[in-house]
Every structure is written in C-alpha cells, then in structure tokens.
C-alpha cells in the first residue's frame, strides 16, 4: 500500500468532511485506507506538509477536440458562432485531427486537475484513443444530429450504434472498462428530429446507457419551440417521455418554473457551464432554483472553443459568484456547494457516484494535491472550502493522480502526454483547416 499524508484531506463526503493531517492508502488504483491514524503496515509513506488532497474535478460537459477551433471566432452569439463559423470547419475535420485536438485538450484538463470528463463530438472513437493514451477517465458520446447533417433519423442512429459497438470493443481490447464509459449523445431537441430522439430514448433504456444532451441553452431555442410546438424544449421532451434519471442535460439556462418541476420529478441531472453561457451571451442558468428543487447540478467547462479554457477551478469560482450577484443573495451556492458541483455531483450526474467524486474507501484513487504554501492568499484561512474557491486557483495544483498514479506534476510535467510535439501538430491542423475553408 502507498500511503499519502497531506495536511488536509478535503473528502467532499458529508460524513467524512475534512481530515487534518490524515492518511490515504492506495492499492491497485483504489483507496483502501482513510484515517487520522497512521496505518500499521504500508510499503511507502509520503509526507505532504502544506498540501491539500481533493478529489479530482469531473468536467461533465465538453467537446474536447474543439481545442483545434479555440479562438476561431469570439464575441458572437451561439447561433452565429455555431452555424457560421464552427460547423463549416468541423466538416473538414479528419479522424486524426480529432485525436490530436482531444489529446491536447486532455493535457490542459489534466494540468487543471480534471481526472474525468464527459465528451460529445464526431469521430468520437479518436477521443477514446486519446483518453486511453493519456490515461484519464471519460464518458464518451457521439453527437447525433440528423437535422444538422440532413440525414434520416435511422441513418443517424446507425452512426451512434456503430460508435457504441466500436467503443465497447475498443474498451474490451484495451482492458479499459474502469476508464471509458459509453452514453448516447443526441445533440439537442433542435438538432434532432422527434423520431431520432425517440429511437435513442428506447435504445438507451434497452442498453442501460445514459443520455447526454444540450437543453434550453438559448432564449432563441425556447422561443422557437414555443412558436412551433407551444411548448418549451423541456416540456416537449416530457411529452416524448424522454426525461428520466439517466438524462444529463447541459446548460438549462432558460428553464421555466414548470420546466424545473419536470426536471426535478424526472431526476434529470443538469450540467452547468457558467463561462460558456456568459461568453456566448446565452444567459445565466437558474442554478439556485434547480438546487432548491432537489435537481442534481454538476459543473462543466463546455468546449474549449466556447470558453476558451478547460479549467474547472475557474468554473467553480464563477458558479459561486455569479448567482449571488444576479439574485442579490450572498447565501446562494456557498463555496462548499460549488466544490461539490465539480466533484461529488459530477460523479452522481454520470451515474458513477459509487466509484468517483469523493475521497472514500473503495473509490478510485483520483485526486489532486494542492500546494497551499505556494499561495500567499492561503494565509490566514478560516474555512478551507472558502479558501480554495475564493482565494486560490488552478496554478496551485501541484500534482494530479488518476487510478493511484500521478499523470502530471509541476516538477515533472506530463507523464503520459508529449505536449511539445502535440503543439506543432495542432498548429499544422489549424493552418490546413483555414486554407481548406478559404
Ligand atoms: Zn456543448
């Protein structure tokens, strides 16, 4: 057993709380010991004075290969950004481009303490290869959208099924069942026909797979649904019997009170992307209302082209701040809840709460070590959650561990990814895409 002895273990489990000067034991990638007392036997003990051990962040919604399109067009609204700039270039992406874009984005996520993410994109099997090479964890979804691609629902569903089969055999052949998970990814109620949504709902229930979807992201989306169907997108999905506790809905910025009741009743998980919603001027999601209606809310960065960073710490701080300002209420989303949204709630949203999201015996040893001595802002502190959320940021992440092994440290850099070589690749792809688009 490898034992770590940090100054603070911030477990993110209500019953365990914060352990001062405690011991975490790891065997074969799993946490097997957690106590204030030193274990009687161990192979190696690493004292970590001045360090905080926190569960790895779970980024529940991204399109990681979009690192390739980062900064392509900023300061426009979502519809213009997506239709005029992003989709035309995405059509030119080759499978290998997606692999390199994903691996580069994964490097950025790892450095920022993200140990698990959920993705939605095209050529998604290439994202699986990048996940395997980087040794991170992920839920992967192919973004189904028969409306965008102008194909029949059956034809589009075939692509989702092909991805499911390819991914499952990839996972088996590489022995990655603890690292890579499948979910369906119908893009949105406006990107999919009713038929496709129904086919996917049925298949998800049959295969016990979860569903990852964009929902009520912009006012325009909601207005168009009201005009066409006299229903909000959430009411529309409810009439299709689409919403259940296996649905993970990104954004939900424009949910009405009635929508929130539906989401709560159906146990839908909401994935909150504060930076992306602000940057694309989509609005600010009613997160405090969702939380008080007992909806599980997790945090996410969204893709690097609409953020433009894959840094969960930034989202944590922002989530803790913006809702206070909007509602003029300092008590909404306290620091601890913001941290929970990035860890335990994320695990719950992905249906992996028995394996991830907190420091507990039996869970995967996925965590980050934060060097609080390096931060002037950590002295003094009275509440550790507040100090982390309001005073520090991802610069103080000293090392990132997945399945009991470091994948990044400030001292040694990336241990699974050659970032310098990748950087040149990314530049080459960017240049090729722009010349082909001209
Ligand atoms: Zn998205």
How is this structure best described in words?
The protein has 16 helices and 17 strands. The chain is an alpha/beta fold and 438 residues long. Strands 1, 2, 3, 4, 5, 14, 15, 16 and 17 form a 9-stranded mixed beta sheet that branches. The chain has an 8-stranded parallel beta sheet with strand order 6-7-8-9-10-11-12-13. The chain is 41% helix and 23% strand. Helix 2 (95-111) crosses helix 16. The chain has 2 domains: 2-55 and 367-402, Roll (Urease, subunit C, domain 1), CATH 2.30.40; 57-349, Metal-dependent hydrolases (TIM Barrel), CATH 3.20.20.140. Bound molecules: zinc ion. Zinc ion is lined by residues 61, 63, 214, 250, 302-303.
Summarize the structure.
The protein is of the alpha/beta class. Helix content is 41%, strand content 23%. The mean pLDDT is 97.
Topology diagram in text:
Layout: E1 2-10, E2 18-20, E3 23-27, E4 30-35, E5 44-55, E6 57-62, H1 78-90, H2 95-111, E7 114-121, H3 124-134, E8 137-144, H4 146-149, H5 153-174, E9 180-186, H6 194-207, E10 210-215, H7 219-229, H8 233-239, E11 247-251, H9 257-266, E12 269-272, H10 274-279, H11 287-292, E13 297-299, H12 312-327, H13 335-342, H14 344-349, E14 367-371, H15 384-391, E15 397-402, E16 405-409, E17 413-414, H16 419-437
Parallel strand pairs: 1-5, 6-7, 7-8, 8-9, 9-10, 10-11, 11-12, 12-13
Antiparallel strand pairs: 1-2, 1-3, 3-4, 5-14, 14-15, 15-16, 16-17
Helix pairs in contact: 2-3, 2-16, 3-5, 5-6, 12-13, 13-15
The protein binds zinc ion (ZN).
